[in-house]
Amino acid sequence: MCTSEEQPLQLAHKLAREKLSGMDIKQQCSRSGAEYVHPDRVIIEYLNQSYVMAIPGMDISLRDSPGRCEHIDSTDRILMLHYLITAKGSSPTGKVIGLRQVPGGSCEHAGFSREVLTPLLDHFGKEPERLVEAAAKLGGSRANYGSVAVSIKAFPRVSVIMVLWRGDDEFPPNANMLFDSSVTHYLSTEDLTVLCERIAQKLTHPGQPQG
User: Fold this and answer.
1) CA atoms within 13 A on the CB side of 179
2) Which of 136, 101, 123 is nearest to 173 (CA)?
3) Is 31 found in the same domain as 114?
4) Is 110 in the same domain as 184?
5) CA-based angle 61:162:91, to the nearest 5?
6) Parent domain of 43
7) What is the spatial distance between Cα 204 and Cα 22, in angstroms, rounded to a whole number?
8) How many structural domains comprise the chain?
9) Is residue 210 part of a domain?
10) In what side-by-side order are the strands of the sheet with 148-155?
11) Is there a single domain that holds both residue 60 and residue 110?
12) CA 30 to chain centre
């Protein structure tokens, strides 16, 4: 029996699979940077791991463990499907924005701060250099922002930049996440906040099963 928390995820997963099945999969692969393997597979990179999506069922499994869908977090599966559905194929703009600059992002910011930024600060705020080592496990590399920053390629055409500022006598430590403004052509604002939550979870609790 599904719990009250699992039921919305199962419904969202079902609806996403149905929507994607009615789209031109080859075209969406081209737009998203995923690889279309004729006639029945899509390969998609997500947070430094490679996944296979079977056509037409849209079931997603780890590339090195085909068919083992049960080991992939439901939220991750939904994010991958939504990314494939939403992708417009837009090029990066080079303009970096925060969540508040994304449509509807201001309304999401309180929850974003609580679920994403606060855990990052609690975990890395006193030793921000530790973020670089943790992010490397997700394929991240150092970026030139704040006191310490890393850029993680979440999807082929979506990168997330995590920035930490060391505190001093005047200001406490601070954190933020930044994105190329083209991110709105690949993920909804809600999906973007969920993606950031997943990244924060994977960085701050690396020992928990993630795939």
Assistant:
1) 24
2) 123
3) no
4) yes
5) 70
6) 6-86
7) 37
8) 2
9) no
10) 96-98, 174-180, 158-165, 148-155, 141-143
11) no
12) 19
Given a contact cutoff of 8 angstroms between Cβ atoms, the answer to whether 101 and 173 are in contact is no
Residues 120 and 196 in one domain: yes
Is 110 found in the same domain as 79?
no
161 shares its domain with 82: no
Task: Return the H-helix or E-strand segment holding 83.
Answer: helix 74-86
Per-residue pLDDT tens listing for the chain (211 residues): 445 556 889 999 999 999 999 999 999 999 999 999 999 999 999 999 999 999 999 999 999 875 555 578 999 999 999 999 999 999 999 999 999 999 999 999 999 999 999 999 999 988 999 999 999 999 999 999 999 999 999 999 999 999 999 978 788 889 999 999 999 999 999 999 999 999 999 999 886 654 4
Position 54, amino acid:
A
Question: What global pTM score does this model have?
Answer: 0.92
DSSP per residue over 144-209, as a string?
Answer: SSSSEEEEEEEETTEEEEEEEE---SSS--EEEEEEEGGGGGTS-HHHHHHHHHHHHHHHH-TTS-
Do the beta carbons of residue 92 and residue 180 sit within 8 Å? yes
